[in-house]
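Support reply, case 0932

Customer input (verbatim):
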Amino acid sequence: MASEASTVHSPKMKSVKALAESASLSSLPSFYSFTHNAHDEPKISDDAEDSVPIIDVSLLVSGTPEERSQVVHQLNKACSDWGCFMVINHGVPESLTKAMIESFQEFFNLPEEEKQEFHGNHVMDPIRCGTGFNPSMDKVNLWRDYLKCFTYPEFHSPNKPAGFSEIALEFSKRNREVVTVLLKAISKSLGLEESYIDKAANFELGLQLLAANYYPACPEPEKAIGIPSHYDHGLLTILVNNGVSGLQVKHKEKWFNINIHPNALFVQVADHLEILSNGKYRSIAHRALVNKKATRMSIALAHGPALDTVMRPAPELVDNESDQPAYVEMTYRKFLELQQTGRLRSKFQSDIEQSKAV
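Our regenerated output:
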């Protein structure tokens, strides 16, 4: 039976950008209306101690043994307490990040028919652009357009606009280098060998996904949503944006506005780091709001295991007598496919029959 979502997510549907720029748009179309849970509305803490941790990643590369040890300790606290942190002195040129943002803007500025060349339907399509979030699950269209590309281990990119591929390749490469350093330190922070996560996730062939979300100014932002509360798949996600706020993370049952510092990278713990750590580190719930005044664009780089690698808790982090593994074992590819269809009920499910049922 066709769902409501299959109607409002037609591949031929106008992009949100085109809709927002329509001269006739004065109010939010009904199928973009999102019901906000009053209980889940933002509660922003003014406590000075409740601020996102800042990690100086350069100290992991060139710091003294004492400095490296201190950063490893800071990562342990950041991943266990917050599930996210800000990274500074990371070596990704600010000019490169700005060029990537500008290139994505040029892509979204392309005529509708040219962007349609890159429309994709399946989570494994190496290049996908479109609107909304998850056509098989959503009842409401989201106020955003997106472009997603697999950039590692094989690099994929649209062939337009001019220069996009070259910038995307360098941007992806430089950010992957940062994640490689972080994963080694995070592995040590869990009391594991430095190379443990690399080997367990087969990170040498790990999937890297480059994605941009485009949120035009919205006539009634209080009735719409950019992306609702969700968790990311993979190990770590890096986020940057065009300077317009809208990202919120959930910490201690409160929503916090995240304003990414200039030339900083915002890093989020994702599902498969949670799985590997057996819940010692938790992926963080986050969402994207929209506004009435300015277009917001965010760029995410999701870094995951190799697609056919089975992810499971590290045995060293499971006490066989009292702390059984809390996660179903499955390949990263299977996880993505089940998540996309809505058949992955919970990454926390410990009943192995769950995986057989789906």
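We compared this against your earlier run and they match. Two observations from our side: The longest strand covers residues 145-152. Confidence is low (pLDDT under 50) at residues 1-12, 348-358. Please reopen the case if you see a mismatch on your end.
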